[in-house]
Amino acid sequence: MSANLIRAIGLMSGTSLDGIDAAFIETDGGAQVKAGPALTIPYDPELRALLRATLGGQGPVEQAESGMTRAHAAAINALMEKHNLPRPDVVGFHGHTILLQPRQGRTWQLGDGALLASLTGIDVVNDFRSADVAAGGEGAPLVPFYHRALAAKLEKPLAVLNIGGVANVTWIGPEPDDILAFDTGPGNALLDDWALAHTGKPVDEGGALARAGKVDEKHLARFLAHPYFARKPPKSLDRDEFALFMPKGLSPADGAATLAAMSVAAIAVAPLHFPAPARRWLVTGGGRHNPVLMKLLRELLGPSLEKVESAGWDGDALEAQAFAYLAVRSLKELPLSLPGTTGVKAPTKGGKLHRAG
Length: 357
Hints:
This protein is of the alpha/beta class. The chain has helices spanning 45-54, 61-83, 113-120, 130-134, 144-150, 189-199, 208-211, 217-224, 252-268, 291-301, 318-331, 339-342; strands at residues 6-13, 19-27, 33-42, 90-101, 106-110, 124-126, 158-163, 166-172, 179-186, 280-284, 305-307, 352-354. Helix 2 (61-83) runs parallel beside helix 3, helix 6 (189-199) packs antiparallel against helix 9 and helix 9 runs parallel beside helix 10.
């Protein structure tokens, strides 16, 4: 590992609205990555409700942005104090996506980079997606560059599946530029919304609700007929793109079972777009903790499907690590996206730097 590594903390607030992931890494922004400690701080119910009210780019945006930025500053301090970390050179602040409409040239992540730099005294890179969208890209997913760095020594073709609020996949081939990434469909978001509405809990804990239900096959078939699944990637989704497919007239358990089946069925059609079959699937994101989703995935994708921990990765910290990595790439003016990851016409730089001093 080179001595010329940059220390970075990455922050991620996912579309599942569960909380803030913070992770420390050291990297050169290329193939060298040394992962450090990480932690997750759940959002308090008031802030979670505030953020939920801004989805779609409406509601108390300024109040939510200030609150979540301050919560991210607290997460940085908590991570550094708990693990006695050296001061990082930069923070990668993804922010919280409240709107993604790349075809209209719009992407919106809440998060005040200047305020975070002022609160922490550390340089901050944020606004990772705008340059890609402005250049004709989908603005997402951006994590594939980090997947490629981590997978440098693994057998390929390889697929990395992230089941967050929205699910996305990165296909990595044997050559350096063999990379394809796209959103597959809903991940946890609709299932979480259903669980909150019917149980008062923000997630279907342990998949208990879905496990007790029966899938509505007609509803599933209507969902899979959506033109998005036939569209050639790269392609991306807003969190609420499939909100109209929220089940109606079903019991809480049957609705949860149907939503879980929808997420998995959308993932199962993704390999139709791969240049070659993946020899191995590595699953990350909160969805890998749902035993119902994992069971359904193994039934459809086979024994090559494993959690990312089998490769020595930390699935709870991976996206936060990725934005630390991308912040370093931004400082070095290296691309954050490629034609195969977001559909942008050429490799595209991104990120906005806010100096602490």
